[in-house]
Amino acid sequence: MVDVSIPQLVDWLSRFRDLVTENRAYLTELDSAIGDADHGSNMARGMGAVMDKLGAATPATADELFKTVGMTLVSSVGGASGPLYGTFFLRFGTTAGAVSQLDAAALSAALHAGLGGVLARGKAEAGDKTMFDAMNPAIEALDAAIAGGADVAAATSAAAQAAAAGRDATEPLVARKGRASYLGDRSAGHLDPGATSTAYLFTALAAATA
Ligand code: ADP
Ligand code: MG
Question: In CATH, what number does 4-208 get?
Fold first, then answer.
């Protein structure tokens, strides 16, 4: 089985930065409908700061790499998404450990740990109209693909497709977590901004591991 290297993990982060930057206005438009119109700027600023940090010095192991990523996001993004994505990456790195490559099982374990961090911080459940609704099905699809014998590239591709489907499924939902929950029923009929950025996270992972 082909492993995912540190350069590929950095490429994942770089592609995620590119996607949230290219789609900054769109993410902000989604957040203006059911939030406070800052998700695009939060994510673009946060991932821009991450790539600036990594450009200055790229750590050689996954634990150090994702510790830098998580701490930079927590410190540079004020909104809910900073601590949530920050905790995702911090736990991803802790579970990945002091390694220079991840096989499919290690990637899955690290993603599960990241998801656990989002849950520990945000307490979201399925159907609450949050980033969890894209992240959880993506990791389930990754696991199912790996169990079926898929390699990393096929598994991350399945994860990206499931994240996009999860994002799309947030549209009719009524938000039960975060700012959008203040709108009650009026939050229905809009995609969740965080589920949309999480779909980019998995699109970026699939591209970096293709
Ligand atoms: P803020 O809501 O502070 O303005 P952002 O606009 O950057 O922060 O991020 C909003 C996104 O954060 C939401 O679309 C949702 O996906 C996610 N989110 C908010 N609260 C939670 C939570 N408790 N658990 C998981 N995700 C959440
Ligand atoms: Mg917001």
Answer: 1.25.40.340
Indicate which atom in ligand 1 lies nearest the CA of residue 197. 16
Other CB atoms within a 10 A radius of the CB of residue 61 amount to 16
Cβ within 8 Å of residue 26, ≥6 positions away: 40, 196
Residue 55 is encoded by which pair of tokens? Answer: 């450009």
pTM above 0.90, yes or no: yes
Q: Establish whether residue 201 lines the binding site of ligand 1, counting it when its CB lies within 6 angstroms of any ligand atom.
A: no
Tell me the pLDDT band of 43, cut-offs 50, 70 and 90: very high
Instruction: State the CB neighbour count (10 A cutoff) for residue 202.
Output: 30
DSSP state for residue 175 in the 8-state scheme? P
**Nearest alpha carbon, ligand 1 atom 21:** 178
Share of the chain above pLDDT 70, in %: 99
The structural domains of the chain, with segments of one domain joined by +, span 4-208
